[in-house]
Amino acid sequence: MEVFFVVLQELADYITYNLLGLEPSSHLGSAVNFFIYDTTKILILLTVLIFAISFIRTYIPPHKVKETLEKRHKYTGNIAAALVGIITPFCSCSAVPLFIGFVEAGVPLGATFSFLISSPLINEIAIILLLGLFGWEITAIYIISGLIIAIIGGIIIGELRLENQLEDYVYETLEKLKKLGNPNIETPDPTLKERYIIAKNETKDILRRVTLYIIIAIAIGAWIHGYVPQDFLIKYAGQENFLAVPVAVLIGVPLYSNAAGTIPLISALIEKGMAIGTALALMMSITALSLPEMIILRKVMKPRLLALFIAILAISITITGYIFNFIL
Q: Are 170 and 300 in contact (CB under 8 A)?
């Protein structure tokens, strides 16, 4: 893996400084080099990883996942749902339809929320990219903190018995399915060739949906890398500013991207002096509290449940950011 990164860096250097003729010491040269290197690296990693995970997922039928979660008891269901969320490389908005499917299948509400939180917040793509950028220590803390947020958030919502805070049509659909027996139709296992086609199509679909956001995030990160003075970020988002974490969470809410798309931006912010906890709180806020997701969820949840969901996430992410800043 290290050789792969070295080769990409040499390629980015050659394109930036030889083909384009930019100066290594210039702001533009630094920004362009960052953009070429990160864009190439992330898109290659994403393509390989999404295809591999999509191929593996063809061996795990969706109805089996639902059956597994339905059989779990109380808190173990939250843990299982949060773990399922990690291996689903969805952005926040694309996780919502599966969340609705879990509810309509009769999966406990708390477990469905654990899935809804962990799916955009932490996934295998973000884990691999964080590992390459920051090392295993930060990656491990990120995974553990994300799981804790997902599990505790789901448990709280489950214990409050807020099923009546879902929109009526969700449970009307559930009642119709119960009357029909809600059968799980067994289908033949796909052949190896069919699994390949499924993985290829899912890879193309996911890349089509996320590539633009990734490129935009990398471009912003490249601009920060090349042009934003380090002292500026240290002053307003460094560890000395006690309010930097909640401000970062608020900034992330109106934005929209997935974890992979935010990582280049976070990398540039940390490099320029932003505290790691503050930067990761921003990433968590963008991926798990995005405004588009809230708009979609409003179609499923009543205002009280949606407000509680937002509050739990915002408080949990803020606390996590402070913990990161304290220990790192």
A: yes
- What residues form DSSP beta bridges with 301? 166
**Single-letter residue type at 145:** S
pLDDT above 90: percentage of residues in the chain = 2
CA dist 149 and 255 (Å) reads: 20
Residue 191 is given by DSSP the state: P
pTM here? 0.62
Is residue 139 within 8 A of residue 272, CB to CB? The reply is no
> Are residues 139 and 108 in contact, defined by beta-carbon separation less than 8 angstroms?
no
DSSP string, 136-190: HHHHHHHHHHHHHHHHHHHHHHHHTT-GGGB-HHHHHHHHHHHHTT------PPP
Residue 301, SS3? strand
Place of tokens 């590992």: 131
At residue 142, the pLDDT reads: 80
Quote the DSSP letter at residue 289: S
**Packed helices 124-134 and 259-271: angle between N→C axes, nearest 10 degrees:** 20
Q: Distance of CA 177 to CAs 65, 181, 184, 326, Å?
A: 18, 6, 11, 50
For 101, the token pair is 């499917």
Do residues 237 and 248 touch, judged by C-beta distance below 8 A? yes
318 neighbors 246 (Cβ within 8 angstroms):
yes
- Bridge partner list, 166: 301
